[in-house]
Predict the 3D structure of the following.
Amino acid sequence: MKVKTILVSQPRPKLENSPFLDLQKRRRVKIDFIPFIHVKGATVKEIRLQKIDLTKFSAIILTSRYAVDHYFRICEKMRFKVPDSMKYFCQSEVVALYLQNHVVYRKRKIYVGKRTFKDLIPLVEKHKNETFLLPTTDKLKPEVPKLLDELDIKWKQSVFYKTVISDLSHLADVTYDVLVFFSPSGIESLLHNFPNFQQNNTRIAVFGAITKKAVEDKGLNVDVYAPTPKYPSMSMALDNYILKANKKK
């Protein structure tokens, strides 16, 4: 079956040269961007209930752009001036670059992993004398605390923001040829909003093994998967699928 409409369960890209927007033009398909989940920041009271004293930490572990934003948001609300001596351990280059929205690079000590949290561990291990704060979501991957616990370091996790299911009732009478998911939370949101969802002819595209498992555990089929050695990004995997599906016979 041909692909004419795609729903990506994330906010619309801010950059006009986004691979998804390029895909839309090149393959002449309609792509809508609607976040299936959204982030809600923790309050100062909630942080204090977790017994977090920002002055006690000399290093921050940042796993996402959300972590960056909400750490500095809480610092501002608590009137805590982040010292120039603070060390930042960023899971990826994307997170490190985003950090520039809040700090001046040349005045800070920033350590950057390659992509996964496991890649960051050797850098953290080299700074055992630091006291680390891990500002996270309420849906943290189990492997993250497990990897930190295996190190001989002082660290503490704190929920600085929560993942909340979005209201998708406005999509009740709308159908798409392809639904694109990047996290198990997206699948959870779909089935929360539409508990009687039937896949039928809808194709499902997923990014990552954990998301793939979440889809299959719900009895749904995965039609497009990324990353793979040949198609490392979702846009590339979709491009290949659309090319085949829309090929004139």
In short: The radius of gyration is 20 Å. The chain has two domains: 5-36+168-183+190-206+214-245, 40-163. The longest strand covers residues 154-165. The chain has a mean pLDDT of 93.
